[in-house]
Amino acid sequence: QVQLVESGGGLVQAGGSLRLSCAASGSIFVFDTMGWYRQVPGKQREVVAVITRGSITTYADSVKGRFTISRDNARNTVFLQMNNLKPEDTAVYYCNAIVVFPSRGGYWGQGTQVTVSS
To answer: 37 forms bridges with which residues in the sheet?
Structure first.
């Protein structure tokens, strides 16, 4: 059973920084693409950044130049460094991971709240 445990959310002033972490349990699993998504009440969940196993990254236009996604394949962990945060970045951030071995499937973390005050 795959579990994704997120940490690092919180309250920060505009212009500040936060670092999110997501650790995927289960050493027998091989993870392909991992990523971060966010959601605010009344809106659809949107992609923030994703990273392939080979570390190819893709970012939403709204976070380019401010957020950096990275991963540690040995620890099945993905990170999101968020700099120059803006009030519009306020959301619940969810980690996502795609498993490719021994079976295929997509998994979500429980979410972590990020609040940016103006």
So the answer is: 47, 94
Q: CA angle, corner 20, sides to 48 and 71, nearest 5?
A: 80
SS3 state at 62: helix
pLDDT recorded at residue 40 = 98
- Residue 26 above 80 pLDDT? no
- Strand pairing report for 57-59 and 46-51: antiparallel
CB 38 within 8 A of CB 48: yes
Query: Model confidence over 51-68: pLDDT tens digits?
Result: 999 999 999 999 999 999
For 89, phi then psi, to 5°, come to -85, -5
The one-letter code for the residue type at 58 is T
